[in-house]
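Second opinion, please. Please look over this fold, written as tokens:

===
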Amino acid sequence: MQPYLTRWLTRWTPALFSGFALLLSACAHHEPAPVGQTAADLLVWSDEFNRIDSDNWSFETGGEGWGNKELQYYTAGHNAHIEFDPHANSHVLVIEARQENPANYRCWYGPCTYTSTRLITRNKQSFQYGRIEARMKLPQTQGIWPAFWALGNNFETDGWPLGGEIDIMEHVGSEPSLTHGALHGPGYSGKTPIFGTHDVGEPVDANYHTYAVEWDRQSIRWLVDDQVFYQVTRAQVEAHGQWVYDQPFWLLLNVAVGGEWPGSPDASSSFPQRLYVDYVRVYQAR
């Protein structure tokens, strides 16, 4: 795991302590302080994935297409496990999309062709404002669609899109080096105009990258490896519809196969495809 040390350093201003702070930062593998995050920010929750913790996550199951004509059946744990990854130098969560149907699962189009996993923190962990981040290595093939995202707590009563959606990271397999961030809410759902794209500069399955949002009452911004690639203000959102982000949101991690955005797998596609998640962390102001 990447250490928390640089995130906990107090901003000592006297010159006497500045060299000591730099030394401590160096000991932390030169991890940069996240853009917009100050030393006053506090780690309020994390999952380091030494196990799949049922206090944090539930498996959401089914093959009804999930509103996007997706092709996979989400299983109750068959497609998720923990392993040690030398590339991350830590234990990681692995979500694996497979071309299979071992239990005669039924999907909206008939017998399912693919299986995968959708993990959610609904009714277990939710957060209002702060920095939400995950360090991940993404799958990459035609037809794959991994995502790290959040839905508002009032999704339970008001549904989508009234409950709001923050897409922290989405990737579609037809764009090997690109990831996206977006908002969906009343007046700006589906093909939302509140949408940004980042080029990581290499295929997304080549290395781990840290995908994050920083969120407060007046704005939300999206980052990859602490580089801001898109931001939107409350006023800009309200030009399209209601700002619905003054409430707690719960988190989702999933790997979809097919669907209206990425399109279906084709002859070039390969399976299984794996999403590796080193950690998920949430920071808020003290």
In short: Residues 1-35 have pLDDT under 50 and may be disordered.
